Amino acid sequence: MPLDLPTLAGVDRQTLREQSLHKLRQAIFAGELAPGRRLIETELSEALSVSRGTLREALRHLVQEGLVVADERGRLLVRALSRAEVHDIFAVRAALEALAAETLCAVPDRSGIVRELRDAVDKLRSTDLILSSLVEVDLAFHLKLCELTGNETLVRSWQHICGLTRATIVRSGPELAIRNMDWQRHSPIVDAIEAGDAGKARQVVMEHMRQTADRIAESLDG
Questions:
Q1: Residues 160, 165, 171, 175: what is their CA dihedral angle, to the nearest 10 degrees?
Q2: Which residue numbers delimit the HTH gntR-type domain (predicted)?
């Protein structure tokens, strides 16, 4: 007699969804699914060897992440950002993360904060990460910067634009994305926080975001 365990139902389907999501992300970050490309369910489900239902679940997640958008006819496309949108996204991120850095500088004992941030930076040193994994490590550092403030509104605001941030990384292309996520570009932020220099911390964060936005915008056509 088969076991009646509803809690264990759907494990295989969920695994397939996660695998499909991972592979789609990889294809987007690698440029195989380029910005602006229409995502056709029949083609993708066949390529992934999954059902269209499983594929739709993965695509819905990509929409939530900001990597995929629907056009006016409801067709799904890989998100393509304009230069202006890139600058807008990083201007908001700069404001949020500069506030986070300034807040952390005001903490009397920052040793634990600095240790956690340096651990996050160290993960960016790995040469074994594929691009999609490196993106997650990079985003984890910036999220940690906000989380350590204890300001939940700040964290939620950062998370709200996280999907758009992913889209900017895709738009920049693999080579530039890797350059932008170099650990040496992140260490000065931690150095300023360790020194408790709020002005310097703000300056470093703002410059980090400005330079990243400029690099991505310059890489775009038109």
A1: -160
A2: 14-81
User: Hey, what CATH class is 9-78 in?
Assistant: mainly alpha
Confidence of residue 12 (pLDDT cuts 50, 70, 90): low
Share of the chain above pLDDT 90, in %: 64
- Indicate the pTM of the whole model: 0.78
How is the chain split into domains, by residue range? Answer: 9-78, 83-219
Question: Helix 52-65 vs helix 41-48: angle between axes, to the nearest 10 degrees?
Answer: 110
CA-to-CA distance for 59 and 26, rounded, in angstroms? 13
DSSP conformational letter for 9: T
Q: What are the tokens at 56? A: 């739709």
> 83-219 sits in which CATH class?
mainly alpha
